[in-house]
Amino acid sequence: MANLKAWISALVALILPVKASTKVTDLSTFKWNLASTPANISVPAKIPGAVHLDLQAAGIIGDPYHGLNDYDLRWVIKPNWTYSAEISKPASGASAWLLFNGLDTFTSIELCGKHVAATNNQFRQYWFDVTNIFKNCSGKPTLSINFGNAVEISEKISKIPGQETWPPGVEGLFEFEHRQFIRKEQNDFGWDWGPAFSPTGTWQPAYLVEIPPFDVHIRNVLVDVYRENQVPLLVPDQSKNWVVNASLDYLGSLPKDAHLEFALFDQKKQLVTEGKLTNVIQASNTITGSTVIAKDFVNLWWPTGLGNQTLYSLRLTIAQEGKKSISSVTRKIGFRTILLNQEPIRPDQLAKGVAPGANWHFEINGKEFYAKGSNFIPPDAFWTRVTRDKMELLFDAVVKGNQNMLRVWASGAYLPDFIYDIADELGVLLWSEFNFGDALYPVDKEFLNNCKEEAVYQVRRINHHPSLALWAGGNELENLELRQVQGSENSTRYFAEYETLFLDILGVTVFENSRSISYTPSSTSNGWSKLDFSRPQPITQRYYNTTAGEIYGDTDYYNYDSTVAFDFTRYPVGRFSNEFGFHSMPSIHTWRQAVDEKDLSWESEVVILRNHHPPPGGPEKNLNAARGGMLEMTQAHSTYYPIPNKTDPAAQFAALCLASQIFQADYYGSQIQFYRRGSGMPERQLGSLYWQLEDIWQAPTWAGIEYGGRWKVLHYRAKDLYQNVIVSPFYNLEDQKLEVYVTSDLFVPVAGKLHMEWYDWKGKPLNLTQNFPKDVNVTVGAINSTRIGSWNLSDTLNGIDLKNAVLMMETYMWLAELPPNTAPTKFYRHRNWFTPTFLSSAKIVDPGLKLTHVPKELKFVIKATSGVAAWVWLDYPADVLVTFDNNGFWVSPDLPMIVKYEVHEDNGKIPWGWADNVTVQSIWDFTLP
Ligand code: BMA
């Protein structure tokens, strides 16, 4: 019987010509070997992978993140490394292609002993027709990819006669020099928060593609969703229908009469609409078409906190009239407009008190909103360790932290699609950047062509994600880099070169491919001064041509003189803050992942040398520089808080790490409140993105989330201050004037009460002789702030010891414009605290903290039994990852704090009894031995 079946199907196959289809084989499925002749090493390997990780897996090197391996493993990148595998031979009749989505960075590729190609850009997709090589290949085909030493190659390129040079200091030098000459993740050569491994390997998937005649393989997809008549950088008309423009890049060849079909499905997989795309054009292995979708057919996509994250699946099919489909592909899309509005301040804005100048804020679906978030850096030096699970955990922390936008910083890498997918689903806007930063770049033809290819691939790949908020050309180019060459001998040339790369190449690439996304050449800038869409490159930058009294652009702010950290009169007044910060230590638990027990000390050279701020400035260890950065932290926390002085060395180290985190959180908190208050000030400030969300490794950095996922005090403080409605004190140290503001970023006004109470440190209410309001009725307009009052503290606290006074402020608000006879259901409560002196000199007392675990309700209850507790910190053991819904808070005896928790499973195991090892402390504990 079985034989008969086989015989029949063989006969059918003979009679009916069955259409062969494209076969894609993931190159990871072959058995790879990694070898270096000079190093005399040959080990099993992985693709995608990295040389360091393969050597670690084979036991040749230890954990690259351990101790000072950042320096000690430098030999690894010296020799060339070859990945090789025997791969399968394609079926005859098909054309065969090698397709690489990411090679890091300099390779020479061979197949069957024949040279295929050389590559030199980590961020390009490469594809090679290897049909003929296979045809002439006798025996088993071996594919080998030889990786060169990027540090050495970049140096050679820098020495090419006639190569561009810049004045000293223009290239931000971290560890290895010359990163601006090569298209490799710039922080691979070191950064002030990371190591310099210069990783190498196939960092993205790679494929063998076999394509039969008249078939294709789609290698990249552009989908652009915009409102009819929409022009990038200008306010789109929300009453218009949607245009969906799709463009598929393919390998193989298409018949001339091929067309494009589409089908749009909602999240329940129900068909919304389908049809043929119109205006179909075929050119250079790309097929493009578009359609109009009626605006009422679809729901909008919104960022988290502002609405639903409605996604649709768009299936695109290349088909031929009367015949079967040739190939099809699906992308998740969302319907939204996102604009970076840099238009001049309008008369109606001026009438509302907005200072003249230009706007610089984002608008989602036609609405201004307050962007709350931080800066995203590469979450690992080795990208193949960045898993979906880890990124889901990180983005969960972003959303729980009340952040709606991340800036994907410019000198790392373009994010893989799975991270954009997570952002699409959770509603986290990703301001994305081309990977150029803290340097000026060459503009020779080859370099520009290379950048163009990179930009075309990345812009087209990423554009369909509704989370994509912006493309920026690079990091700190206008506010830092050009500033350094401005007025120099070759100033005009440097500015012209800058415009060539960042406007003519990168800007034009965005505009050629996308009508939906705004572009700005530099992360921090004064914005454009003119747009002229009759030119392919419409932007004229304002640069430094500013008028006194007017406000433009976004700001960044770093000041390592911590003595002025809380002087808010020094913070920049701009339309948006895209960077600000100060470094802090990770917790002792995270340190333990990377350093030996004996090194758990502030004085340990291992700990000190893992501090890269200020950067070592070269490949050698630089203890002096590193000590400088450590001292900044010491000075900061010892100025403002009691100095830990514990006898047990590990306890002392843990306390110092925590002290540095408390300063960091306090400092960022002060700035976040200042920027948010700006939404109701003449600057009409509409964004706060602090530096930086997360860590690349275990070290002192600006991060709010440690490597491994543990939240620092900062992430909790930012979560608290990124709530919709907050109450904030602003104390002017010079004239002792205290002002209190309530700020809201809701789209509609809120009303309610503010309760304020002065206590002494024991928690006893103070009897003020002067009038100070206890309960105030408050209303705050949509995305606005309201000043509650202004008091001179020496008058208000007349006769009271300033060191023994604490002010508690609490809002209790609801939506102001409810329909008649409707009771509010949602309340906006926020508690905040103020002390007229720094805690280092305040008369703090033992607050008598009591911690109770209520396992059934997944919560802890914290009581302060004998005084006000400042900066209460719940700590948990190393072998588990826990996040609390609040931490780093203050508690007074009148109101216990309830803290809910979530345990994040690691390998499905939660250590039994972890909660018994949770501890509670406050700033008071620093005073204990
Ligand atoms: C800015 C950023 C980063 C840097 C950070 C901390 O310069 O753009 O380049 O890591 O500050 O110094």
From TrEMBL:
InterPro entries membership: Beta-gal/glucu_dom_sf (IPR036156), Beta-mannosidase-like_N2 (IPR054593), Beta-mannosidase_GH2 (IPR050887), Beta-mannosidase_Ig (IPR041625), Galactose-bd-like_sf (IPR008979), GH (IPR017853), Ig-like_fold (IPR013783), Ig-like_GH2 (IPR006102)
Pfam family, one: Glyco_hydro_2_N2
Listed transmembrane segments: none
Keywords recorded for this protein, A-Z: Carbohydrate metabolism, Glycoprotein, Glycosidase, Hydrolase, Polysaccharide degradation, Secreted, Signal
Signal peptide residue numbers: 1-20
Taxonomy, superkingdom: Eukaryota
Protein's cellular compartments: Secreted
Residue ranges constituting the Glycoside hydrolase family 2 immunoglobulin-like beta-sandwich domain according to the UniProt record: 240-336
SUPFAM superfamilies named among the record's database cross-references: (Trans)glycosidases, beta-Galactosidase/glucuronidase domain, Galactose-binding domain-like
Catalysed reaction equations from the record: Hydrolysis of terminal, non-reducing beta-D-mannose residues in beta-D-mannosides
Enzyme Commission number: 3.2.1.25
Pathway: Glycan metabolism; N-glycan degradation
Main localization of the protein described in the UniProt heading: secreted
Annotated protein name in UniProt: Beta-mannosidase A
